TrEMBL record:
Gene designation per UniProt: potA
Family, per entry: Belongs to the ABC transporter superfamily. Spermidine/putrescine importer (TC 3.A.1.11.1) family.
Species per Swiss-Prot/TrEMBL record: Prosthecodimorpha hirschii
Record carries keyword Cell membrane: yes
Alphabetical list of PROSITE patterns matching this protein: ABC_TRANSPORTER_1 (PS00211), ABC_TRANSPORTER_2 (PS50893)
Protein name in UniProt: Spermidine/putrescine import ATP-binding protein PotA
Pfam families in the record: ABC_tran, TOBE_2
Protein backbone atom coordinates (compact mmCIF):
# COMPACT_ATOMS: atom_id res chain seq x y z
CA UNK A 1 0.00 0.00 0.00
CA UNK A 2 1.98 2.98 -1.29
CA UNK A 3 -0.31 5.02 -3.57
CA UNK A 4 1.98 8.05 -3.29
CA UNK A 5 4.61 6.18 -5.32
CA UNK A 6 2.17 5.79 -8.24
CA UNK A 7 2.29 8.88 -10.46
CA UNK A 8 -1.16 8.05 -11.87
CA UNK A 9 -2.81 7.93 -8.42
CA UNK A 10 -5.01 10.94 -7.61
CA UNK A 11 -4.94 12.29 -4.08
CA UNK A 12 -8.18 12.38 -2.10
CA UNK A 13 -7.06 15.51 -0.22
CA UNK A 14 -4.84 17.98 -1.99
CA UNK A 15 -3.24 21.20 -0.79
CA UNK A 16 -2.06 23.43 -3.61
CA UNK A 17 0.33 26.20 -2.56
CA UNK A 18 -1.74 26.88 0.50
CA UNK A 19 -0.87 29.99 2.50
CA UNK A 20 -2.83 30.96 5.60
CA UNK A 21 -2.24 34.32 7.26
CA UNK A 22 -3.74 35.66 10.46
CA UNK A 23 -3.11 39.41 10.17
CA UNK A 24 0.54 39.65 9.25
CA UNK A 25 1.38 36.28 10.85
CA UNK A 26 1.83 33.39 8.42
CA UNK A 27 0.56 30.20 10.08
CA UNK A 28 0.79 27.99 6.96
CA UNK A 29 3.45 28.86 4.44
CA UNK A 30 3.07 27.53 0.90
CA UNK A 31 2.06 23.93 1.55
CA UNK A 32 1.55 21.56 -1.38
CA UNK A 33 0.65 18.01 -0.42
CA UNK A 34 -1.46 15.06 -1.57
CA UNK A 35 -3.07 12.56 0.81
CA UNK A 36 -4.52 9.39 -0.69
CA UNK A 37 -7.61 7.32 -0.19
CA UNK A 38 -7.18 4.74 2.62
CA UNK A 39 -4.07 6.47 3.85
CA UNK A 40 -3.37 7.11 7.54
CA UNK A 41 -1.50 10.40 7.42
CA UNK A 42 0.06 12.28 10.33
CA UNK A 43 0.90 15.97 10.60
CA UNK A 44 3.70 16.22 13.12
CA UNK A 45 5.48 19.20 14.58
CA UNK A 46 5.96 21.35 17.65
CA UNK A 47 3.20 23.48 19.11
CA UNK A 48 2.32 26.39 16.87
CA UNK A 49 3.83 24.99 13.64
CA UNK A 50 0.49 25.18 11.81
CA UNK A 51 -0.71 21.55 11.95
CA UNK A 52 -4.19 22.31 13.23
CA UNK A 53 -4.64 25.24 10.88
CA UNK A 54 -3.84 22.96 7.94
CA UNK A 55 -6.40 20.43 9.15
CA UNK A 56 -9.05 23.06 9.79
CA UNK A 57 -8.83 24.07 6.15
CA UNK A 58 -9.81 20.53 5.15
CA UNK A 59 -12.72 20.61 7.61
CA UNK A 60 -13.85 24.03 6.38
CA UNK A 61 -13.39 25.92 9.66
CA UNK A 62 -10.73 28.06 7.97
CA UNK A 63 -10.09 29.00 4.37
CA UNK A 64 -6.70 29.50 2.75
CA UNK A 65 -5.56 33.10 2.27
CA UNK A 66 -4.16 31.98 -1.07
CA UNK A 67 -3.90 28.59 -2.74
CA UNK A 68 -6.51 25.86 -2.83
CA UNK A 69 -7.70 22.77 -0.99
CA UNK A 70 -9.24 19.99 -3.10
CA UNK A 71 -11.25 16.97 -2.08
CA UNK A 72 -11.47 14.21 -4.68
CA UNK A 73 -10.19 16.65 -7.29
CA UNK A 74 -12.76 19.38 -6.54
CA UNK A 75 -11.91 22.68 -4.90
CA UNK A 76 -13.82 23.01 -1.62
CA UNK A 77 -13.58 26.79 -1.61
CA UNK A 78 -16.69 28.28 -0.02
CA UNK A 79 -18.13 24.86 0.87
CA UNK A 80 -19.38 24.95 4.50
CA UNK A 81 -18.06 22.31 6.93
CA UNK A 82 -21.32 20.34 7.08
CA UNK A 83 -21.41 19.76 3.33
CA UNK A 84 -17.85 18.43 3.15
CA UNK A 85 -17.37 14.64 3.22
CA UNK A 86 -15.13 14.97 6.27
CA UNK A 87 -15.56 14.92 10.01
CA UNK A 88 -13.25 16.30 12.65
CA UNK A 89 -12.70 14.87 16.09
CA UNK A 90 -11.35 17.42 18.52
CA UNK A 91 -8.73 17.43 21.24
CA UNK A 92 -11.43 17.87 23.89
CA UNK A 93 -13.95 15.42 22.48
CA UNK A 94 -16.91 17.10 24.13
CA UNK A 95 -19.85 14.72 24.32
CA UNK A 96 -23.29 16.01 25.24
CA UNK A 97 -23.34 15.25 28.98
CA UNK A 98 -27.11 14.91 29.32
CA UNK A 99 -27.44 12.48 26.40
CA UNK A 100 -26.88 8.73 26.49
CA UNK A 101 -24.13 7.12 24.45
CA UNK A 102 -26.57 6.12 21.70
CA UNK A 103 -28.13 9.58 21.58
CA UNK A 104 -24.69 11.13 21.29
CA UNK A 105 -23.87 8.86 18.37
CA UNK A 106 -27.25 9.46 16.74
CA UNK A 107 -27.07 13.25 17.07
CA UNK A 108 -25.59 14.11 13.66
CA UNK A 109 -27.83 11.60 11.91
CA UNK A 110 -30.91 13.14 13.51
CA UNK A 111 -29.79 16.60 12.43
CA UNK A 112 -29.60 15.18 8.91
CA UNK A 113 -33.15 13.81 9.38
CA UNK A 114 -32.34 10.28 8.41
CA UNK A 115 -35.22 7.82 8.81
CA UNK A 116 -35.53 6.44 12.37
CA UNK A 117 -34.86 2.84 11.36
CA UNK A 118 -31.73 3.81 9.51
CA UNK A 119 -30.47 5.83 12.47
CA UNK A 120 -31.03 2.92 14.86
CA UNK A 121 -29.19 0.54 12.55
CA UNK A 122 -26.28 2.95 12.11
CA UNK A 123 -25.98 3.54 15.87
CA UNK A 124 -25.93 -0.21 16.46
CA UNK A 125 -23.25 -0.65 13.82
CA UNK A 126 -21.14 2.11 15.37
CA UNK A 127 -21.50 0.75 18.90
CA UNK A 128 -20.32 -2.61 17.65
CA UNK A 129 -17.42 -1.01 15.80
CA UNK A 130 -16.07 0.63 18.96
CA UNK A 131 -17.07 -2.34 21.16
CA UNK A 132 -19.50 -0.42 23.37
CA UNK A 133 -22.71 -2.37 22.66
CA UNK A 134 -23.49 -2.84 26.33
CA UNK A 135 -22.95 0.85 27.15
CA UNK A 136 -25.62 2.32 24.86
CA UNK A 137 -27.83 3.65 27.65
CA UNK A 138 -25.10 5.14 29.81
CA UNK A 139 -24.36 8.84 30.14
CA UNK A 140 -20.83 10.13 29.46
CA UNK A 141 -20.07 10.62 33.18
CA UNK A 142 -20.64 6.88 33.70
CA UNK A 143 -17.81 6.01 31.31
CA UNK A 144 -14.03 5.88 31.59
CA UNK A 145 -11.87 8.30 29.62
CA UNK A 146 -11.07 5.62 27.06
CA UNK A 147 -14.75 4.73 26.62
CA UNK A 148 -15.74 8.38 26.20
CA UNK A 149 -13.05 8.66 23.60
CA UNK A 150 -14.54 5.71 21.71
CA UNK A 151 -18.02 7.24 21.85
CA UNK A 152 -16.58 10.41 20.35
CA UNK A 153 -14.98 8.29 17.64
CA UNK A 154 -18.25 6.49 16.95
CA UNK A 155 -20.03 9.84 16.75
CA UNK A 156 -17.54 11.19 14.22
CA UNK A 157 -17.82 8.05 12.12
CA UNK A 158 -21.61 7.74 12.22
CA UNK A 159 -22.15 9.89 9.14
CA UNK A 160 -19.62 7.76 7.24
CA UNK A 161 -17.36 10.58 6.14
CA UNK A 162 -14.71 9.90 3.50
CA UNK A 163 -12.09 11.48 5.73
CA UNK A 164 -11.74 11.50 9.49
CA UNK A 165 -9.70 14.37 10.91
CA UNK A 166 -8.22 13.71 14.33
CA UNK A 167 -6.81 16.65 16.28
CA UNK A 168 -4.60 15.27 19.07
CA UNK A 169 -7.34 12.71 19.76
CA UNK A 170 -5.44 10.75 22.38
CA UNK A 171 -3.91 13.63 24.30
CA UNK A 172 -6.17 13.13 27.32
CA UNK A 173 -5.45 9.41 27.74
CA UNK A 174 -2.72 7.88 29.87
CA UNK A 175 0.17 6.19 28.14
CA UNK A 176 -1.06 2.59 28.24
CA UNK A 177 -4.54 3.50 27.07
CA UNK A 178 -3.11 5.77 24.41
CA UNK A 179 -1.04 2.93 22.98
CA UNK A 180 -4.03 0.59 22.99
CA UNK A 181 -6.19 3.20 21.33
CA UNK A 182 -3.55 3.82 18.68
CA UNK A 183 -3.87 0.19 17.62
CA UNK A 184 -7.66 0.39 17.75
CA UNK A 185 -7.54 3.45 15.50
CA UNK A 186 -5.31 1.64 13.01
CA UNK A 187 -7.61 -1.35 13.07
CA UNK A 188 -10.65 0.84 12.55
CA UNK A 189 -9.04 2.71 9.70
CA UNK A 190 -8.16 -0.57 7.96
CA UNK A 191 -11.61 -2.09 8.55
CA UNK A 192 -13.43 0.96 7.25
CA UNK A 193 -10.98 1.60 4.41
CA UNK A 194 -11.13 5.30 5.25
CA UNK A 195 -8.62 8.12 5.07
CA UNK A 196 -7.46 9.29 8.50
CA UNK A 197 -5.57 12.53 8.97
CA UNK A 198 -4.16 12.96 12.46
CA UNK A 199 -2.51 15.98 14.06
CA UNK A 200 -0.02 15.19 16.79
CA UNK A 201 3.10 16.53 18.41
CA UNK A 202 3.93 13.05 19.70
CA UNK A 203 6.49 11.52 17.37
CA UNK A 204 6.00 7.98 18.68
CA UNK A 205 2.29 8.25 18.04
CA UNK A 206 2.90 9.43 14.47
CA UNK A 207 5.42 6.64 13.87
CA UNK A 208 3.03 4.01 15.24
CA UNK A 209 -0.16 4.87 13.41
CA UNK A 210 0.78 6.59 10.18
CA UNK A 211 1.52 5.33 6.68
CA UNK A 212 3.21 8.67 6.04
CA UNK A 213 4.23 11.59 8.20
CA UNK A 214 4.64 15.25 7.32
CA UNK A 215 7.09 16.99 9.64
CA UNK A 216 6.28 20.70 9.90
CA UNK A 217 8.13 23.72 11.19
CA UNK A 218 6.97 27.33 11.18
CA UNK A 219 4.12 26.68 8.76
CA UNK A 220 6.25 24.78 6.25
CA UNK A 221 6.44 21.11 5.33
CA UNK A 222 10.00 20.03 6.03
CA UNK A 223 9.78 16.36 5.06
CA UNK A 224 6.97 14.07 3.94
CA UNK A 225 7.82 10.37 4.07
CA UNK A 226 7.10 7.00 5.66
CA UNK A 227 8.01 6.58 9.35
CA UNK A 228 11.10 4.51 8.54
CA UNK A 229 12.32 7.00 5.93
CA UNK A 230 11.82 9.87 8.35
CA UNK A 231 13.74 8.01 11.03
CA UNK A 232 16.51 6.51 8.90
CA UNK A 233 16.87 9.24 6.29
CA UNK A 234 15.92 12.56 7.82
CA UNK A 235 16.68 15.42 5.49
CA UNK A 236 17.84 17.89 8.11
CA UNK A 237 19.06 18.16 11.69
CA UNK A 238 15.65 19.53 12.61
CA UNK A 239 13.87 16.35 11.44
CA UNK A 240 16.56 14.05 12.85
CA UNK A 241 16.27 15.73 16.19
CA UNK A 242 12.48 15.94 16.26
CA UNK A 243 12.05 12.21 15.61
CA UNK A 244 13.84 10.16 18.23
CA UNK A 245 17.28 10.72 19.66
CA UNK A 246 20.29 11.50 17.51
CA UNK A 247 23.98 12.35 17.80
CA UNK A 248 25.22 15.07 15.47
CA UNK A 249 28.89 15.29 14.55
CA UNK A 250 29.88 18.39 12.63
CA UNK A 251 32.80 18.27 10.23
CA UNK A 252 34.29 19.16 6.87
CA UNK A 253 33.93 17.01 3.76
CA UNK A 254 37.17 15.53 2.52
CA UNK A 255 35.77 13.42 -0.30
CA UNK A 256 32.28 13.07 -1.73
CA UNK A 257 29.89 10.23 -2.76
CA UNK A 258 29.73 7.25 -2.89
CA UNK A 259 31.78 7.22 0.31
CA UNK A 260 31.60 10.58 2.00
CA UNK A 261 34.58 11.22 4.23
CA UNK A 262 34.20 13.83 6.91
CA UNK A 263 36.92 15.14 9.16
CA UNK A 264 35.61 16.26 12.50
CA UNK A 265 38.10 18.12 14.61
CA UNK A 266 35.51 18.76 17.29
CA UNK A 267 34.83 15.06 17.78
CA UNK A 268 38.36 13.96 16.94
CA UNK A 269 37.62 11.38 14.26
CA UNK A 270 37.22 10.77 10.57
CA UNK A 271 33.79 9.61 9.54
CA UNK A 272 33.35 7.40 6.49
CA UNK A 273 29.79 6.86 5.37
CA UNK A 274 28.13 5.33 2.33
CA UNK A 275 25.99 8.23 1.22
CA UNK A 276 24.63 9.81 -1.92
CA UNK A 277 24.07 13.19 -0.29
CA UNK A 278 25.34 15.80 -2.76
CA UNK A 279 28.33 17.44 -1.09
CA UNK A 280 31.66 18.91 -2.17
CA UNK A 281 35.08 18.75 -0.60
CA UNK A 282 35.41 21.54 1.93
CA UNK A 283 31.67 21.77 2.76
CA UNK A 284 30.63 21.91 6.38
CA UNK A 285 28.24 19.01 7.01
CA UNK A 286 26.59 17.13 9.86
CA UNK A 287 26.88 13.41 10.39
CA UNK A 288 23.76 12.21 12.19
CA UNK A 289 23.73 8.83 13.88
CA UNK A 290 21.11 7.23 16.14
CA UNK A 291 22.28 6.01 19.56
CA UNK A 292 21.30 2.39 18.85
CA UNK A 293 23.57 2.27 15.80
CA UNK A 294 26.68 2.90 17.85
CA UNK A 295 28.50 -0.04 19.45
CA UNK A 296 30.13 0.51 22.82
CA UNK A 297 33.08 -1.53 24.05
CA UNK A 298 35.88 -1.34 26.61
CA UNK A 299 38.27 -2.53 23.89
CA UNK A 300 39.80 -0.39 21.18
CA UNK A 301 38.79 -1.33 17.61
CA UNK A 302 41.35 -2.48 15.04
CA UNK A 303 41.25 0.91 13.37
CA UNK A 304 40.94 3.76 15.85
CA UNK A 305 41.08 6.68 13.42
CA UNK A 306 37.88 6.04 11.45
CA UNK A 307 34.27 5.79 12.73
CA UNK A 308 35.58 5.49 16.25
CA UNK A 309 35.53 7.73 19.29
CA UNK A 310 36.82 7.23 22.78
CA UNK A 311 35.59 8.72 26.00
CA UNK A 312 34.36 8.13 29.53
CA UNK A 313 30.93 6.88 30.62
CA UNK A 314 29.38 9.51 32.88
CA UNK A 315 25.78 8.34 32.99
CA UNK A 316 23.77 5.22 32.25
CA UNK A 317 20.03 5.47 31.75
CA UNK A 318 18.30 2.15 32.41
CA UNK A 319 15.02 2.04 30.49
CA UNK A 320 14.19 -1.66 30.85
CA UNK A 321 14.40 -2.71 27.22
CA UNK A 322 17.53 -0.66 26.57
CA UNK A 323 20.25 1.15 28.45
CA UNK A 324 21.47 4.51 27.24
CA UNK A 325 25.16 5.17 27.80
CA UNK A 326 26.19 8.82 27.96
CA UNK A 327 29.83 9.09 26.98
CA UNK A 328 31.90 12.24 27.35
CA UNK A 329 34.54 12.47 24.64
CA UNK A 330 37.96 13.79 25.47
CA UNK A 331 37.12 17.05 23.75
CA UNK A 332 34.16 17.51 26.12
CA UNK A 333 31.17 16.73 23.93
CA UNK A 334 28.67 14.00 24.71
CA UNK A 335 27.61 11.02 22.58
CA UNK A 336 24.76 8.69 23.45
CA UNK A 337 24.88 4.97 22.62
CA UNK A 338 21.94 2.65 23.28
CA UNK A 339 22.36 -1.02 24.03
CA UNK A 340 19.50 -3.53 23.98
CA UNK A 341 19.22 -5.40 27.29
CA UNK A 342 18.95 -8.86 25.81
CA UNK A 343 19.75 -10.70 29.01
CA UNK A 344 18.86 -10.10 32.60
CA UNK A 345 21.20 -7.41 33.85
CA UNK A 346 23.10 -8.84 36.78
CA UNK A 347 26.43 -7.26 36.24
CA UNK A 348 26.97 -4.46 33.79
CA UNK A 349 29.91 -5.13 31.48
CA UNK A 350 30.42 -1.38 31.30
CA UNK A 351 29.97 0.94 34.22
CA UNK A 352 30.23 4.59 35.29
CA UNK A 353 33.64 6.20 34.75
CA UNK A 354 34.82 3.38 32.45
CA UNK A 355 36.92 4.28 29.44
CA UNK A 356 35.11 3.05 26.32
CA UNK A 357 35.26 3.03 22.54
CA UNK A 358 32.29 3.93 20.38
CA UNK A 359 32.27 2.52 16.85
CA UNK A 360 29.86 2.25 13.93
CA UNK A 361 29.70 1.01 10.35
CA UNK A 362 29.63 2.91 7.09
CA UNK A 363 25.87 2.36 6.70
CA UNK A 364 24.97 3.53 10.16
CA UNK A 365 24.26 7.23 9.77
CA UNK A 366 23.42 9.99 7.33
CA UNK A 367 25.18 13.06 5.98
CA UNK A 368 23.12 16.25 6.34
CA UNK A 369 23.84 19.62 4.85
CA UNK A 370 21.44 21.62 7.02
P1 LIG B 1 -0.74 23.01 18.65
O1 LIG B 1 -0.10 21.67 18.62
O2 LIG B 1 -0.31 23.83 19.84
O3 LIG B 1 -2.22 22.98 18.46
P2 LIG B 1 -0.41 23.71 15.88
O4 LIG B 1 0.82 23.27 15.20
O5 LIG B 1 -1.63 22.95 15.65
O6 LIG B 1 -0.12 23.83 17.43
P3 LIG B 1 -1.90 25.96 14.92
O7 LIG B 1 -3.03 25.82 15.87
O8 LIG B 1 -2.12 25.54 13.52
O9 LIG B 1 -0.62 25.22 15.50
O10 LIG B 1 -1.43 27.47 14.94
C1 LIG B 1 -0.35 27.93 14.17
C2 LIG B 1 -0.07 29.37 14.51
O11 LIG B 1 -1.13 30.19 14.05
C3 LIG B 1 0.07 29.63 16.00
O12 LIG B 1 1.15 30.51 16.21
C4 LIG B 1 -1.25 30.26 16.37
O13 LIG B 1 -1.07 31.18 17.44
C5 LIG B 1 -1.66 30.98 15.11
N1 LIG B 1 -3.12 31.02 14.97
C6 LIG B 1 -3.95 29.97 14.84
N2 LIG B 1 -5.23 30.37 14.72
C7 LIG B 1 -5.22 31.71 14.79
C8 LIG B 1 -6.23 32.73 14.72
N3 LIG B 1 -7.52 32.42 14.55
N4 LIG B 1 -5.84 34.00 14.82
C9 LIG B 1 -4.53 34.33 14.98
N5 LIG B 1 -3.53 33.43 15.03
C10 LIG B 1 -3.87 32.13 14.95
Amino acid sequence: FQPWTDPAAKPLIEFRNVIKRFGDFTAVNDVSLGIYEREFFALLGPSGCGKTTLMRMVAGFDDPTTGDVLLAGQSVKGLPPYSRPVNMMFQSYALFPHMSVEKNIAFGLEMDRLPKGEIAARVEEMLKLVKLESFAKRKPHQLSGGQRQRVALARSLAKKPKVLLLDEPLGALDRKLREETQFELMDLQMTLGMTFLIVTHDQEEAMTVADRIAVMDHGKLIQVATPSEIYEQPISRYVADFIGDVNIIEGRVESAAPVVTIVSEAAGTRVEVNSDTAVNAGDTVYFAIRPEKIAISPDAPAETGVNALSGTVFDIGYLGDVSVFHVRLDGGRTIRATVANRHRLIDRPISWDDRVWLTWGRDSGVVLTR
